[in-house]
Amino acid sequence: MNPTYMNKLILYSVIALIIGISCDEDEIGPKQADKFVKYYGGLAEDYGSDVKQLPDGGYFIVGTITVGDNTNAFRLITDKNGNSKVSLKTYGGPFNDKISRIKLLSDGSAVAIGTYQRSLNNSDIWLIRFDSKGDTLWTRKFGTTSNDEGNGLLVNAENEIVCTGTTTIQKNNVPDKEIWIHAINLDGSESWPQERTHGTTNKEDEGNDIVEVGGTYVVIGTTNGFPFGTTSKNIAVWISTDRKGISGYMKTIGGDDDDYGKMAKVLPDGDLLIIGSTVNTTSNKYDIILAKLDASFNELLQPKILDNGENETASFLLYQNNQIYILGTTTEPRTVTKKILLINASESGDNPLFFKYGFKNEVMEGYGMDHTSDGGIVFTGSNLVLYKIKDLGE
Fold first, then answer.
1. Bridge partner list, 72
2. How far apart are alpha carbons 98 and 114 in whole angstroms?
3. pLDDT over 70 at 274, yes or no
């Protein structure tokens, strides 16, 4: 066995043992109820991609875990203290599979979207429907004969699962990446008659998240096809003009650097907040970008850069009480040390506060989070970790 791998395994086992001894009891004190750290995996390659609090106060975690030489998707259900309640279960085949996002329904059941690698040269968009106990009700795969990736989803008032991702289509023998969008019913049956794709010929268009604004579906992603002739990437905002994803138009946000759209939130007044990452094409420095559109998709303010002096990328966005919370990753300059980053700011991005979580000299990345019923925040990321905090900075 590789010595580095063995050392990592020993380190994570010791960490897990310490944490398990300190706060793995069903009944814990008031301070520990407000905050805890839990590890469920053993390797840095294992990560939680999303987490949602269940009606009973526990947590539904999904992500990717190492199985042999490849990866599978997993789901894990815990109690309110982060202790495993339903054993971790893996899903997938002989190659590399993952879950990206999960949506929880009012009865505690859930639907998740991810990517299933069918062969070395083909991956599909993958939907999994869970019941309230975490058991699988059905799975569906979509896409082309090339590489497709499932990234975001919503459940609308008609109980349709509307999802987005990226599909690769061969046009004139050239691979062309386009935004993919489709809808199915909660029982797994078709809602739309066919999958939809949108993009520009021989360009790279990606769909990462989807929200609903006033009955209109809006996909957040990345494009290098608008405006025509550009060499940089922009945040893509694809706006549907019907409820079946047939037609729409593209709006872009960004400047001369490479900008990547990651996620969006619809505010109570109908405005749209968008987060992503921007990369300086000269210095190769990463920062987090925040944009805001009104309900008619006009820019309300110039995209704002949130910069704490390191390389920062965004993964997840929450909104509550006129405050935004951005989860991501920060990398210390001239090192490979990464920590989970949590930013709190007003919805205009003013006066941001930056908080870092993780062990010294380790690689820790943040991917998914949720509000908790007691006013706290729970988030997950690499090393298959779950953080629960009540106050920022703990």
1. 65
2. 5
3. yes
CA distance 198 to 210: 14
Say if residues 306 and 341 touch (Cβ distance below 8 Å).
no
- As a whole number of angstroms, the distance between CA 152 and CA 73 comes to 16
Would residue 130 count as lying in a domain?
yes
Tokens at 109, concatenated: 């059941």
Task: Tell me the whole-structure pTM to 2 decimals.
Answer: 0.90
CB atoms near residue 145 (< 10 Å): 13
Q: What's the one-letter identity of residue 165?
A: G
Q: Per residue in 140-155, pLDDT tens?
A: 999 888 899 999 999 9
Measured between its terminal Cα atoms, the distance across the chain in Å is 37
Helix (H) or strand (E) holding 133: none
pLDDT in the model for residue 269: 93
Rounded alpha-carbon distances, angstroms, from residue 373 to 384, 386, 389: 23, 16, 12
Q: What integer is the mean pLDDT of 380-393? A: 92
Task: Please count the structural domains in the chain.
Answer: 1
Residue 126: which pLDDT band, with cuts at 50, 70 and 90? very high
Tally of CA atoms within 13 A in the half-sphere of 22 that contains its CB: 13
Residues spanned by the domain of 70: 3-389
Is 156 among the domain residues?
Answer: yes
